[in-house]
Amino acid sequence: MGRLALVALAAVALGAGWLAFRHGSSSAKSAVVERVIDGDTIVLADGGHVRLVQIDTPEAGEECYAEQATALTRRLLPPGTRVRIELDPRLDHVDRYGRRLAYVFEEGENVNLELVRDGAATPYFFGGRRGRYASKLLAAAQSARGADRGLWAACPGTRLQPDESLSTGPS
User: Going by C-beta distance under 8 Å and a sequence separation of 6 or more, which residues neighbour residue 5?
Assistant: First the structure.
């Protein structure tokens, strides 16, 4: 095989690897946070949107504790923060809005799990599908609820129902 053919083959392989991640086949990549949209959605410096998978935070402007959940995510992931974006092979990689569905790690800490631990989010197993951190997310939610942390103290009547989206009541 000629040198030009080898270079072309290498370029195709690199391009395929990039496309595989962009379309959900790779499991992790490094990225930089541009901004936080709400408690469970961020924008990366490359323009990609990431929905933190397997969790749900109160809806901004509508539900109890939404502002606090968004503020915590902003504290954990300020602009310029280098993160690792990890897909879960057991789950969808993109939602109906075109957002990447992923776990976000900052300095080795699972931000999705941290939000549940702090009572800013609950586990949400869309379609009943449980990812690799499902048991940790459930344990963290039970602990936060038992300690009345975050939304568990602020939003009476909030229930832990991981197969349904979160409802904390009006803000």
Answer: none
For the record, the structure tokens of 34 come out as: 């541009």
**Lookup: tokens for 87:** 């897909």
Q: Looking at the DSSP assignment, which residues form a beta bridge with residue 31?
A: 83
- pLDDT tens, residue by residue, 31-73: 999 999 999 999 999 999 999 999 999 999 899 999 999 999 9
Q: For the chain, what is the domain count?
A: 1
Whole-number Å distance between alpha carbons of 14 and 57 = 37
For residue 115, the enclosing domain spans 27-154
Question: For residue range 70-96, what is the model confidence (pLDDT) as tens digits?
Answer: 999 999 999 999 999 999 999 999 999
CATH number of the domain enclosing 105: 2.40.50.90
Distance from C-alpha of 150 to C-alpha of 117, rounded to nearest angstrom: 9
Q: Which two tokens stand for residue 4?
A: 């030009």
- Rounded Cα distance, 12 and 164, in Å: 42
Pair of tokens at residue 127: 């379609």
Neighbours of 67 (CB within 10 A): 15
The CA-to-CA distance between both ends of the chain, in Å, stands at 66
